[in-house]
Amino acid sequence: MKALQSAQTLVLSLFALSVQAASLPASSESYIVDSDFIQETHIGLHLDLLEDETAKLSIHDVIKAAEIGRFTRSEHRQQSFGTTSSVWWAHLSLVNTSDQPQELVLFQGYPQIDSMRLWETRNGHLRVRDAGDTLPFSQREVATNSLAFIVKLKPNSQHTIFLRYQTSGSMSLDLSLYTSIGFAEAMSVKQMIQGIFYGALFALALYNLFIFFIVRDVNYLLYVLYIVTFGMFIASFSGYAAQYIWPESPWLANVGLLLFWGGVIAMALIVSKYFLSLKKKSSSH
């Protein structure tokens, strides 16, 4: 009797999935999430992509485009488009084949995205959520240096996601899917490595500042300024500056990268000039 009930449950679950799959766009190829789902996986090769050169397509236009097969399958784990004025759309279909609900984290590894918007269907309605460096950090759904969304899958269900990317800088789609535990562990390791890196930079800057106060050589002070500027550039690029230094300033989150990149180049030229001048004076004696 129990075996018969189990078989009936399995048949009903498969039927429900087939009905949901029939309503999805034909271009989609679902990514299976089961009870053996690993803690992290890159899903770039499971995305369908669409370029919107006019940046005017609505979510309803995009859904229709997916239904008629205008999306194309991504060929790379990380899709880079360089600097572009186009909006890029990504379509992802997830299937939870387990009997348990799944809470996952959809993580965008490249943080320099102005606007990243996610649409998903819930109870027959479209739900939209936003992320990006044009928003204050306090409005991010997941407190991380990059962009992330929490995705909840019901047991034996199919979940359709549309993502809209728009940015004034370089466009790069770098999506990974984590379990909640896997995400926490990955971020812990990442923050430890970053802490070691920034700690080493701070120690180097402090050491050269100490030498400057002893010998009063301006070259050491300039080198300290170069190290600080370089550290701020890396922090801006990786998103840690937006998380810890200016969390409520989207303006600095956008211009900080260019500002400190210019500072790195300027300080490198100044340090080189002073160093070469000092070397020239030394050789003339």
Which terms would index this structure?
285 residues, 2 domains, seven-stranded mixed sheet, four-stranded antiparallel sheet, elongated
List the helices and strands and how they pair.
Layout: H1 2-22, E1 31-33, E2 40-42, E3 48-52, H2 59-67, E4 72-73, E5 79-83, E6 87-96, E7 102-108, E8 115-122, E9 125-131, E10 147-153, E11 157-166, E12 170-173, E13 175-179, H3 180-215, H4 218-238, H5 240-245, H6 250-284
Parallel strand pairs: 1-6
Antiparallel strand pairs: 2-13, 3-4, 3-6, 5-12, 6-11, 7-10, 7-13, 8-9, 8-11
Q: Would you kindly provide a written description of the structure presented here, covering whatever features stand out?
A:
By secondary structure, the protein is of the alpha+beta class. It has 2 domains: 175 residues, Immunoglobulin-like; 99 residues. β8 and β9 form a beta hairpin. α3 runs antiparallel to α4. The chain is elongated, with a radius of gyration of 25 Å. The N terminus is likely disordered.
Main sheet attributes: strand count, strand direction, barrel closure:
7 strands, mixed
What is the CA-based Rg, rounded? 25 Å
Nearest-integer average pLDDT: 85
**The first-level CATH class name of the largest domain:** Mainly Beta
Q: Indicate the CATH architecture of the largest domain.
A: Sandwich
What is the fold-level CATH name, i.e. the topology of the largest domain? Answer: Immunoglobulin-like
Structural class: alpha+beta
Shape descriptor reads elongated
Topology order in helix (H) and strand (E) letters:
HEEEHEEEEEEEEEEHHHH
Total number of beta strands: 13
Q: Would you identify the regions where 5 or more consecutive residues have pLDDT less than 50? A: 1-27
Total domain modules: 2
Q: What is the helical fraction, as a range of percent?
A: 40-55%
Enumerate how many helices there are, as a single number. 6
Q: Report the span from N to C terminus.
A: 101 Å
Strand percentage = 25-35%
